[in-house]
Amino acid sequence: MAISNTTPISIRKATLHDAKALAELGTHVWTQTFGHTVSPADLQKYLNASYSTSAMEADITNPLKELIVATSTTNDIIGFTLMTKGSTEPCLASYSNHVELQRIYVHPDYHGTGVGKLLAVELEALARKEGFEHMWLGVWEENARALGLYGKLGFKEVGKKKFLVGDQVDTDLVMVKAVQ
């Protein structure tokens, strides 16, 4: 599907009605991006825990999380982002009042159209409105597309952390930026 950079995109808070579509999109994007790095059994176990409809419902209703969606002109969910309050990493000890940008997922058909940036900007504005001073994230060190986006958005590497899916141990870069 060819998408124009002028395709109107709407941004809104996720509702429980979105859970199934978010589960499908999260499963698709995670599998496309990371699925080759883990065994099929570990992949399925991770997807069931993180991207089932019930897992997405839990994220939507969790008061410590904010889930925002991007929709196309046909109201299809084409991307989402998740902010998590109260999460931390040891390398963030010198950063006050921070919040985690836990996920930005965009359907591959919409890569390069600015959807990821729109979601990140919206989440940053929400973090600022809620009084957070810094936003942090963990990103797989081999995810060049995400690293490029986060660099353009002003995130800087401050450390590393391990990310486990079954027996597979990957390294995530921890990145942070000021939002005030």
From TrEMBL:
Q: Name one Pfam family in it.
A: Acetyltransf_1
The record's annotation in CDD domains points to: NAT_SF
N-acetyltransferase domain segment(s):
9-180
Q: Which GO terms describe its molecular function?
A: acyltransferase activity, transferring groups other than amino-acyl groups
Q: Work out whether the entry's keyword set contains Cell inner membrane.
A: no
PROSITE patterns in UniProt: GNAT
Matching InterPro entries, A to Z? Acyl_CoA_acyltransferase (IPR016181), Bact_Acetyltransf (IPR050832), GNAT_dom (IPR000182)
Q: Does the keyword rRNA-binding apply?
A: no
Keywords attached to this entry: Acyltransferase, Transferase
Coiled-coil spans are none
The source's superkingdom equals: Eukaryota
Q: Please state what the protein is called.
A: N-acetyltransferase domain-containing protein
Query: Lineage of this protein's species?
Result: Eukaryota, Fungi, Dikarya, Ascomycota, Pezizomycotina
